[in-house]
């Protein structure tokens, strides 16, 4: 399954941005934020990352492309929010539902790491929502370590 990262074409960016924002809102709501809080946070994050409404030198969006199946997902990767230009972050990675469970997520991660290294990164981080046990298992299996853990109990 040879995968490649292909920069998202400019004419796909607005559609991707809307989708990624909707998905981020849904994830935040699933973790206990109100719809309003989630929407505010998601829109603010996207405005900060893409102030001109397009990818920047510090934030790139790629199609995850399988040579046979075509686009199987996407990856948003860029610098983290620290002042350290060697600290990079996977902001969003998604494998389309119909392609999940086939190893595409696992195969995407070395491509993300390679891209980050090519941009001067020494570290690559990511966030996993607590409800996403499948993703957490994948990342742990390829060497990502937990650096923070936030917990809550619904009363």
Give an account of the 3D structure:
The chain has 155 residues and is of the alpha+beta class. The protein is built from 4 helices and 5 strands, in the order βααβββαβα. It has helices at 10-30, 35-49, 104-118, 133-141, and strands at residues 3-7, 59-66, 70-79, 87-95, 123-126. It has a 5-stranded mixed β-sheet, with helices on one face. Helix 1 (10-30) packs antiparallel against helix 2.
Number of helical stretches of at least 4 residues: 4
Q: What is the overall pLDDT average?
A: 91
Number of strands: 5
Rg to the nearest angstrom? Answer: 16 Å
Main-sheet strand order equals 1-2-3-4-5
Global outline: globular
Please give the share of residues in helix. 25-40%
Main sheet specs = 5 strands, mixed
Q: Find the structural class using helix and strand composition.
A: alpha+beta
- Report how far apart the termini are: 46 Å
**What is the beta-strand fraction?**
15-25%
Q: What's the order of the H and E elements?
A: EHHEEEHEH
Which residues sit in consecutive blocks of at least 5 with pLDDT less than 50? Answer: none
Name a few traits of the molecule.
single chain; 155 residues; alpha+beta; 5 strands; 39% helix; globular
């Amino acid at each position: 399954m040879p995968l490649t990262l292909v920069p998202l074409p400019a004419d796909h960016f607005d559609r991707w941005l809307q989708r990624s924002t909707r998905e981020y809102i849904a994830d935040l709501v699933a973790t206990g934020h109100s719809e309003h809080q989630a929407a505010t946070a998601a829109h603010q994050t996207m405005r900060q990352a893409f102030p001109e409404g397009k990818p920047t030198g510090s934030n790139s969006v790629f199609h995850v492309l399988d040579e046979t199946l075509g686009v199987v997902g996407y990856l948003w990767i860029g610098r983290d929010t620290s002042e350290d230009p060697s600290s990079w972050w996977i902001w969003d990675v998604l494998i389309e539902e119909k392609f999940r469970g086939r190893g595409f997520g696992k195969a995407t991660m070395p491509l993300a790491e390679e891209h980050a290294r090519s941009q001067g990164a020494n570290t690559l981080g990511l966030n996993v929502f607590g409800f996403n046990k499948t993703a957490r298992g994948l990342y742990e299996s390829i060497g990502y370590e937990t650096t923070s853990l936030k917990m809550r109990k619904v009363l």
